[in-house]
Every structure is written in structure tokens, then in C-alpha cells.
Amino acid sequence: MNKVIVKILLMAFLATLIGCSDSSNKVKITFIGPLTGGVSAGGLGGRNSAELAVRLRNASGQSKYSYELVPLDDECKPNIGVQVATKASADPAVIAGVTHYCSAVAMGTVDIYHKFGLPVIVWGAVLPDITYANDYKEIHRVNGTMINQNEVAANFMVERGYKTWAVIHDTTDYGKGHNEYFSKSLSPLGGKILGTFAVNAEQQDFTAELTQIKRLNPDVIYFGGLAPTGVRIRAQMEKLAMDQVFQGTSGIVSDAFIEGAGDLAEGVLAFREGAPTEKLPGGAVFIEKYTEANFNEPPEAYGAFSFAAANLIMDAIEKVGPDRIAVMAELNATNDHDSIIGKISFDDHGQNTVAVITKYVIQDGKWVVWEDSSYAAGAKRLTR
Amino acid sequence: MDLGFLAQFFVNGLVLGVIYALVAVGFTLFFGVLDVIKFSHGDVLMLGAFTALATYLGLSDIGVAPGVALILVFVAGIAGMAFVGAIVCKFLVLPLRGAPQLNTLLITLMFGTVIRESVRLFYPSGSNPKPFPKLLPDNAFEFGNLTLRLDSCIIVLLGILAIIFTQLFIQKTKFGLAIRAVAQDEETARLMGVNFKTVVLLTFALGSALAAVGGISTGLYYQEINFAMGLMLGLIGFSSAVLGGLGSLYGAIAGGFLFAALQTVGAVWFAVPAYKDVFAFAVVIMLMAWRPTGLLAERNEERV
Known about the structure:
The structure holds two protein chains of two kinds.
Chain A (H helix, E strand, L loop, with lengths): L1 H20 L4 E8 L6 H21 L5 E8 L4 H13 L3 E6 L3 H14 L3 E3 L6 H4 L6 E3 L4 H14 L4 E7 L2 H14 L5 E8 L7 H10 L3 E5 L2 H13 L5 E3 L7 H7 L7 E5 L9 H11 L9 H18 L3 H9 L24 E7 L2 E4 L4 H4 L7
Parallel strand pairs in A: 1-2, 1-3, 3-4, 4-5, 6-7, 6-8, 8-9
Antiparallel strand pairs in A: 10-11, 11-12
Chain B lengths: L2 H32 L6 H21 L4 H28 L7 H22 L7 E2 L8 E4 L2 E4 H23 L1 H11 L1 H6 L4 H27 L1 E2 L3 H16 L4 H21 L6 H15 L14
């Protein structure tokens, strides 16, 4: 009697397994980014954008496969990132991934994608080492790196007549990278860094560091880190009545920064690789489709990159079929591929060449391209 | 160093010190009456701040004036956490009276995790940092290089008043007398007709209410709260209480301010301010090696 029950259970179990793998024409792509936590605004915008790419592809009726996006949350924490990257990589149904907004997380997970042979395209993280530190064929990146961003930033600021800086950066790979590349770009131009302050990204109180900076009295505070920490520093500058110009990096180019800092966001500068979404070759179409899809969150600064990465993957799968190795080879050969962010070409490290760097300033509660702003026109002035 | 900057560092440290002292006093109260360490204290502080925030959001929906809202926000946070503190005591701490103290420590540690994860999962998008409303006037006074903000002054004043109130309550009221009696000798206090359970519950409510004041002050000062804020504050508060001498009220206050001073000095001294916590905790370790019972060790005959 017992044996019969065991047999029935076993058959039911097998049937479930077969049932699961039955949808074999469904191809899974994973999306990994911070969906909760302080920088989740960027991650949710990226997820929605990738989801939009998948929906549009499925609705087009011209694709050979039906696609499914598997969004996973890395919380912008390396340890969580490693867990979800392993989870995605270990699922044979997942063919490729659109992965990571946070550089510190991407640095931790590239080894995993390499080990499991999962081809991924980074959509937001900007640390150069993600593509350049290893020779992993699995890793690609559609957005640019922080090297160019900081060169342009240093040039621009020196041209505007600023002479002295204090640098605050978080102690993750991301913050340290920004500090390194900005300092490197600034010194040949004659700019002087009066003090460098490495801080914990989770830290709440910055009054001691800021009082030190107030003593040094630089023209500009350069901040290499992400939006939540940036908001705290900007708010606490106000507590100490500091009038330094606040210069951020691509990590604060997000509506979340403006929401968090409120009125204090006015006149904050930041630099980001790639043209602003509305000025991209396919930007208008992307924004139109995104608005139509009625997502709860805006696409944020890197949404278009996530959209382009998802499409690049689906193009490759259409061409060579849902096979990780074939897709990886196809991605590596990407050259002059049309996308909404312009032509995508990967070098031998899988890095896309993005030449344009956009300078931003916050004006009336919006990120405005510097050249279009009242600040450039002379109608408004920065605090120094 | 310019006097203005020196004063600025002092003011920065003072605000931190008041918040740490509020947390440390809670730890010392619990240890005083029951010889237990309640590790959910930091998370109760966080819950107090979230309760206050939720109350404010509710009140602003029905259009209550900010001044009234400020008072109600404090009332809700304090009353809520006093209740939570008493509940923790009744269901988690008192039933474990006979068990080794380690069990109390563990069970409260786990309860703290429950609170933290519950806020993260069940508060609307609770894993994101929440902007805390600006309810205090933000006038600033400039004295040379010192910028003194009215809101910082109010927070310091409020914290000090809360601690003074606690001290007076314990020293001058009948309930306070009962708390001190239980702290000194539970058996004898019972024989003298002290209602042991009520006294213990009240002490936990009092300590947790102070944590709520600390949590709301943190929110008002930084204009931001998050679900994990209690972790570090709890740890620092506990260290401060131990540094000052667990069981001693003045010790906890001194410990809180000392810890804030160490952090500020660390941030000023080191080229890399990220080391300030390493420095502060390292000094605490050294002080503990020198005075294992804390700087103001509790005298055997008088606790709390």
C-alpha cells in the first residue's frame, strides 16, 4: 500500500517537473539591480525599462521566442548581489542578464557570471574595472565608465574658475574610483584638493567631516557616491551654513536626489556619460512607450541603457537561439548595432564606447543640461 | 584651531551625545532593575521614529497645524514605545526570570530583528530611507565660524529635559522609590509590599519611552529615518552604558557624551574619517580593560 502511495507521489512530482519545463519556447532573461534600499529609484527605473523592452518584443509578433524578464533585487549590497547572481546563473532557463547599477555589486558578481558562463550586459555601474580588470568574455557594458566622466568634470569646473576642492567619497569601490579618477584629472589642470574624506556609505552624521571642510574653505565640495549619502551631506551643509558648490557624479543623477534634498538641490552639479534620455537617437520613442506603459516609477537616468541592453540580448537570441555560449559569442561580436542609445560597439573587453558626457545642473527641481540652463545663460548664479 | 570651529565641533558632538545618552539610559534602567540586557532597544528606537512619522503623515492628511502635530507626534511615539517596552517585558523578559541571562539577551536580540524586518517589509516601501518632516524652526545664528541652529538647540534641550525628568521621577516619586528598592534587593522590596511586576513593567515602559524620544530626535535632526538606524544606535547606546557603568544613570549619560566626543575627535584627527568609529570603539575597549565595571561603577547598595 505504502509503495503505491510513494509511486503516485513520485509520478505527481515528475509531472510537476515536466510541467515546469513544458514552456520551452519561453526564454528567460534576468534583470538585476537595486529594487529596494536607498538607491532603489535607479534600480526600479532600470527594471521597468527592461520590462518594457520585453513587453514590446513579445507584442511585436515578429519574434521567434516569447521572452520573460526575471527581475532580482541586489539591494546595492555586494553580498546580496552575489546571492542573486548565483541564483540567476544557476537557472539553466536564464540565457542572459541585464545586470547591476551599483559598481561595488558588479565587482563582486563578475566572477560568478564568468564561472557559470552567463553572458551579461551591465546597464548602469560605471567603475572601469568591471570590464577592464578581467578578461571575462561574459561581461559587457552599454554605458560608459567613470574615467571620461571625471575628465570632463575636472575640465568644466576649472574652466569656470574654481580653484580649490574638498573631496568626500564613500569607501566602496565606486566612491574610491571616483576619487582616484577625479584627482588624476584635476591635478594637471592646476586645481587643488585641500582635503579628501573617505566616509562610510551608511553613515548618518557628517557634521564633523563638514566642519573640517568648512575650516579648509574650498570653492567646491566634490562628492563621489550615491544619492542617499549625497542627500545627507547636502542637508547637513545647510546646518553648518556652508556655501560651497556641491559637485556630484553620475551616482546622484536621479530624481531621488532632488526629492530627498528638496530646495537645497538647487545649483547642484553632476556629470554623466551619454546624452540625456530625451536627446538620445531613440529617446523620444522610448519616453513615449514608457509613458504609455504606465509604470509607477520614472525611468531615471539609466533606464534607456537598461532598455538597450535588454534589446541587444533579445536580438542576439533571435539570431543564434537561446543558448548561453552562442549568445555570448554573438554579443562579443557586436559592432555598430543600432539602438535607442545610438550605435553600440563592444571593444575586446566588452565595453561600449560612449563618447558624450553630459553636464547637469539642478534648476527649479529638475536635472537640466548645463548648456540649456539659466546658469549657463547667466540668469542664475551658483553659490560661489 | 579657531574658537568658532572648536565650538562647532562641540555643538555637533553635543547633539550626538544627547541622542546616545537617551539610548544608554534605557539600557542602564533595564539592567538596574532586572540585571538583564535588552538588545531590542535600538530597534524600539527605530519603531518609535516610524510611529512618529506615520502619526505625522496621518495628521497632515487631516490638516493639523505643524505645532500641534509636533506635540502629538511625540505623544504617539512615546506612548507607543512605552507600551511596546512593557509588552516586551511582560512576554519576553519576565517569563525568562529563572533562565540564564543569556537567554534574555538572545530572545530580545531576535525580537529586535523581528521589529526591524517587519518595518522593512510591512511599512510602505519600508526598505527606503524616509524623509522626516521638518517640524522645528530652522533659524540659524552665526557667531563667527560657529553656526548654531535653533532646531539643534531644541533637540539638545529636549533630550536633557527628558533625562532630568527621568532622574527626578526615580529620585522623588513613590514609584521611583519602588524602582530603586527593587534594584537594590528584589526579595526585600517584595516583602515591603512593593508590587514587583508593576515596577518592572513601568521601568521598561520608561526606558523605551526614552528610546522613542531618541528616535524622534534623530529624525528631526537628520530629517531622515530608515529601518536599520537602530542597529548602530543600539550598539553605541549599549557601549556607552557599559562604558559609564551598567546600572548607573549618571554613568550612562557620561558614557553617551564620551562616545560622541570620541567620534568627533576621531573624525577631526584622522585623515580618513571613516576610521572614527574604529577609533571610538578601540578607546572603549581600552577603557573597559582599565575599568571593567565602567567609569562610574555602580555602588552595590544603590542601582539606578
